[in-house]
Amino acid sequence: MSKVTDLVLSEVKPIIAKRNDEFVDIEYVKEKGQNYLRIYVDRQPNGIDIDEIADLSELVSKKLDSLDPDPFPDPYVLEISSPGVERPIKTDRDWENAVNKYIHISLYQKVNGKKIYEGTLKSYNDEEIELEIKIKTRRKTLTIPRKLIASIRFAIEF
């Protein structure tokens, strides 16, 4: 993480935690000439709604405006949002919540001839995951080394 996101995180995590919200991710990026500070939050078990996000946004904005010295070298847009149903799997809690859920995985190199899989995460450990996939009408369990996973997120099964 950058110095800006590290500092912001140390200031806003207590605000997020006090509301019983869950910090998911943070990014400070420049897109089309505009800087964005994006903070992703969620609330278990039913998610976070737009009114709760608006309230949190106001609290975080006030906190960031009060910081002296200002950690932002340039003007920025603050965006606080839910990571959505297809959120990335990053934290230990995400991994725990992903067991028996439908997920999407992109790999660095092919496993059984493919680099992208969708299926149900059956189990995981530090070394590998077990993913149950459907091939036509049959189900098959793949063991995939975690070091081959480029990205992993929740997915919607159709």
From TrEMBL:
Chief localisation class: cytoplasm
Record has Cell inner membrane as a keyword: no
InterPro entries from the UniProt entry: Ribosome_maturation_RimP, RimP_C, RimP_C_sf, RimP_N, RimP_N_sf
Domain of life (superkingdom): Bacteria
Limits of the Ribosome maturation factor RimP N-terminal domain: 12-86
Annotated Gene Ontology cellular component terms: cytosol
Keyword Cytoplasm: yes
GO biological process terms, semicolon-separated: ribosomal small subunit assembly; translation
Alphabetically ordered keywords of this record: Cytoplasm, Ribosome biogenesis
Pfam families: DUF150_C, RimP_N
Residue ranges of every copy of the Ribosome maturation factor RimP C-terminal domain listed in the record: 89-158
Subcellular location: Cytoplasm
CDD domains: YlxS_C (cd01734)
PANTHER family: RIBOSOME MATURATION FACTOR RIMP
Family: Belongs to the RimP family.
Function: Required for maturation of 30S ribosomal subunits.
Protein name: Ribosome maturation factor RimP
Species name: Lactobacillus acetotolerans
Gene: rimP
